[in-house]
Design a protein that fits this description.
It contains 6 helices and 2 strands; from the N terminus they run ααααββαα. The chain is mainly alpha-helical.
Length: 142
């Protein structure tokens, strides 16, 4: 499946609504939602919060975002066995992840990286990209 490119303009177009939705879900001020803040380390989000945010974003933007979509998109065309082994992201997987999560500062990518730690990388920008891709998929399917 080819990666759907997302421009900075597209991200900024959905950012205000994404930030507002996240602030509601996390019970914080919208000013606390910075484009590159780690949702887990910077805003104390938990996995249940991710589900809540995705649900709220689906409603706010009238799109469908399948569960596990970020990691699936990050893996791209790499077979799962080449993306991770025994729960650890492979060097190819890490390269793919860095490219997909280009908004995340390089120093946040730890080696070795556990697959379970990938959500620690997610930022509001990550979710903006998810929304824009979902919008493009919906438009393509229409």
């Amino acid at each position: 499946m080819a990666e759907i490119p997302v421009t900075q303009e597209e991200i900024m177009a959905v950012y205000p609504k994404v930030a507002e939705t996240m602030a509601d879900a996390l019970g914080c001020d919208v000013e606390d939602i910075k484009p590159d803040v780690s949702l887990i380390e910077g805003l104390d989000a938990e996995s249940i919060d991710f589900l809540d945010m995705v649900f709220r974003l689906e409603r706010a933007f009238k799109v469908k975002i399948p569960r596990g979509k970020i990691v699936e998109n990050a893996r791209g065309d790499l077979p799962e066995a080449e993306f991770e082994r025994n729960g650890i992201v492979t060097p190819q997987g890490l390269a793919q992840l860095k490219e997909y999560l280009s908004e995340v500062p390089a120093d946040r990518f730890k080696t070795p990286m556990k697959v379970a730690d990938i959500p620690r990388l997610f930022t509001p920008t990550t979710f903006c990209k998810l929304v824009v891709r979902a919008q493009k998929e919906a438009a393509a399917a229409a």
